[in-house]
Amino acid sequence: QVQLVESGGGLVQAGGSLRLSCAASGRTSRTYAMGWFRQAPGREREFVGKISWNNNIDYADSVKGRFTISRDNAKNKVYLQINSLKPEDTGVYYCALDLNPRGGTSSGEYDYWGQGTQVTVSS
Question: Of 115, 120, 101, whose CA–CA distance to 37 is shortest?
């Protein structure tokens, strides 16, 4: 089993920044991909970005240039740096682990999920 715990969410004004963290524990290995998803009220969960085991990174078009994903394999952590926040970035942000080392863009491809961290952006 793998456990994922997100942290770093909060209330921030538009234009501000946040750094979300996701810590993985349990039966992890280094050859896994990590993804970030978000879900706004009344909307479906959407892909934000992912990082493969060998650090290939993909982002959703809506966040390119503002979001940066990184990982620290020694600490089993993945990070999501969010800059120039907009009110439409508001939602619950989830990290997810994909046992496929390449990772995917669909939530159904991920094997483990964190509980989520709330990001609220005020205008």
Answer: 115
